[in-house]
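Researcher: Structure for this, please.
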Amino acid sequence: MIKRNFTIRAVLVLTLFIVKLSAFSQVFNEGTFKIGRTLSLIDAYYVDTANIDILTEKAITEVLKSLDPHSTYISAKDVKDMNEPLNGNFEGIGIHFNLLRDSIIIIEPVAGGPSEKVGLRTGDRILTIAKEKVTGINLSTNGVRTRLMGPKGTKVDITVFRKGEKDILDFTIIRDKIPIYSLDASYMLDKETGYIKLNKFAATTEKEFSDAVALLRKNNMQNLVLDLRGNGGGYMLAATALADKFFNDQKLLVYLLGRKNPRQDYKSAGSGSLADARVVVLTDEQSASASEIFAGAIQDWDRGVVIGRRSFGKGLVQNGFYLTDGSMIRLTIARYYTPSGRSIQSSYKEGYEKYMENFFKRYSDGELMSADSTHFPDSLKYKTLVNKRVVYGGGGIMPDVFVSADTSYNSQYFNRLYAKNVLNTFVLDYYDKNRGLLNSRYKSFDEFKKKFQFSPVEIQALIAKGETEGVKYNEEQFNVSKEEILLVLKGLIATNLYQTSEYFQIINENDKVIEKALSVISDKKSYNKLIGNQ
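Model: Predicted structure, C-alpha cell format:
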C-alpha cells in the first residue's frame, strides 16, 4: 500500500514537472536564450567595459518598437511617475508652486492638504527644504518635486519668507496623499448648457465628473459640452463609466479582441443620469485612446454630435508586466473596437518612425485646416447603429462637424514668448506685486472677468520682459497676436486668483470650436439633423 502511494505521488510530480517544463519552453525558446547568451558574451569578452543594464534596456526598447508604436519599456524609476496621474494621487506636501527668478513661490496650497493645515500661504517663498538651501542654485521643477514628495506620514522641514513678516518662518509638514485631478474645468456656457473639460481618464474621473454634473444641474444644466481635446486617454473603464451615463438602456460601448484574448464586451448598465441630455463631444488630433472609446460610443449610437478635428487613432490595448528589477513592459495584448466594429488604430505597418511621421504630417498637409484633406478608403466605411450614418475606421474618430484650427492670432513673436516662458513668468511677477490690490478690487470671478484689463504701461512691461529674455519686439506681429496674448495673460492671473476652471472660462471666450458647439447644441433641430434624427 505504501509502495502504491509512493508510485502515485511520483507520477503526479513527474506530470507536474512536464507541464511546467512545457510552459517554460514556450517562454524560453532558442531566440530568448540567444539574446541572453549575446549579452553574457559582451559582458565576459568585449574589448571595452560595457554597461549590460543599459544594453539590456536598449535591446528591450528596440524589440518592442518593432512590434507596434504603443508597446513600451518603462524603467523602474519611471513606473511610479507614470502611475501617479492615473491613480489620482501622489504623496507629498500638497502645494502648487512655480519658479520665479530661481525662487520657489507657492501659488496655492492644495485645499485640505498638509501645507494648508500648517498655515502655508499663497505667495510664500521656500528658502530651505530639509535644511538644504533651495534658492539661487538653479533648481529645476523636478528637483523641487523630488525634495518635497515622499511617503505618507514622513516629515519634511522647510523655511519660508513671507511678505510682512520680519522673521523667517519654520514649518514641519507631514506628507500625505495629494489628489491629482483629471477635470480641468466645469461651468455653464449659457443658461442651459454646461461645459466640462477632462485632461485624462483616471481612477477618480467618474467621481469628479459626477460631482461636476451635480453642481451644473443646480444651475439648470440641461445639455452638456464635453471637451476631450488634448486628452490622451488613460483607463478604459473610466471612459466606459462616463459613456454609461448617457444611455438609458443596455448598449455595447466597446469591445476588445486579441490573439490570446477572447472578445470582451463592455456595455452600459441602462440607467444613465444624462440619458435625456443633448451632448456634444469635442475632439482634436491629441484626443486618444480612452477619449476615442468615449467619442466612438457616442457617435456609433447616434447619441450625440462630435465636433472638432480627427482624433489621434490609438486603438491598441496595453497590459503592464513587471520585470524582476521593478521595471515594466507595457505590451499590446488586444485591439479595441467601437460598437459598430470600427478599429480606429492608425496603420503602423511601415514601422514606428513612419507611424509618427504620418501623424505629424497632419500639421503640414492641411488636415488641420480642411476636412477634405482627410481621405478614407471605402474598405474602412461603417454605418452608425441607429440612423445608419457613414463613419470611418482606421485612423481616429472623424468628427460629425469639422472646425479648423484657429491660426488667426498666430505669429512668430507670440510663439517665442511661449517658448521662452515669458507669459508665465510675467504673470507670476505681476501677481506677486499686485496680489493685495487684485484681491481687494475683484470680490468675485464674474467681476474680474468683466472688468480686468492690462494698462498700456503693463503691456509695455510685458514687451520689456520679452526683450530681457531674448524675444525681440515686432510691432506688426504683436498686433496680430495682441488679443490672444492679453487673453492668455488674463487667464493665467485668474488661475492665481481662483482655480484652473476660471482660466478656461477666460481663454475659451475666443474658442471657435466651443462657439460652434454651443450653436449646435442650442438648436434642437440642427442637433437632431446632424445625428440623423429627422
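Researcher: Any notable elements?
Model: The chain has three domains: 90-179, 183-316+335-404+516-530, 412-509. The domain at 90-179 is CATH 2.30.42.10 (Pdz3 Domain).
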